[in-house]
Amino acid sequence: MALLDKIKFHVWNPLTAVLDLVEKWNPTDCTTEKDYERSLYEWLHEQLGGVQVTKQFARGRVHADLVVADKVIIELKVNLDTTAKYQRLVGQLEEYREWKGDVVIVLFGRTDKNLRKKLDEAVEKRSGFLLFDQQMRVVQK
């Protein structure tokens, strides 16, 4: 299956390929954001083979948990349950405007329903602008 995912990444759409892999990923024994980051990093390396996956990526003002092939940012959030955490995430999404690739936000643990709704609206609004080629997606694990 890993060969198909690797081919899909290169030939198809990197965002779709990463979303498919995140959906298939089944993290175990993870409690912190670092645990999830490490687990997803290992999973992506296993599934994508020679595709570059970078942890704690930084370029200019952009700082991301993971970046896949310089095309997809993956931002991990555990327990999006306070307004402060939501505002910090929205601030990060604003910084990603400088990014030329796509963004996947992966939520774990407790997610406040109202904050998730606000996040979905912000992502939809951001992805809806035709001026930006960048797409954003939210996944709840």
Secondary-structure blueprint:
Blueprint: H1 2-11, H2 14-24, H3 33-48, E1 53-59, E2 62-68, E3 72-80, H4 83-95, E4 102-111, H5 113-127, E5 136-140
Parallel strand pairs: 3-4, 4-5
Antiparallel strand pairs: 1-2, 2-3
In summary, what is this structure?
With 141 residues, the chain is of the alpha/beta class. The protein is built from 5 helices and 5 strands, in the order H-H-H-E-E-E-H-E-H-E. It has a 5-stranded mixed β-sheet, with helices on both faces.
Question: Could you describe the 3D structure shown?
Answer:
- By secondary structure, this protein is α/β, with parallel strands linked by helices.
- The model has no long low-confidence stretch (mean pLDDT 86).
- The protein is built from 5 helices and 5 strands.
- It has one domain (2-140): Trna Endonuclease, Chain: A, domain 1.
- Helix 1 (2-11) packs antiparallel against helix 2 (14-24).
- It has helices at 2-11, 14-24, 33-48, 83-95, 113-127; strands at 53-59, 62-68, 72-80, 102-111, 136-140.
- It has a 5-stranded mixed beta sheet, sandwiched between helices.
Keywords, separated by commas or semicolons:
five-stranded mixed β-sheet, 27% strand, Trna Endonuclease, Chain: A, domain 1, globular, 141 residues, 5 helices, 5 strands, alpha/beta
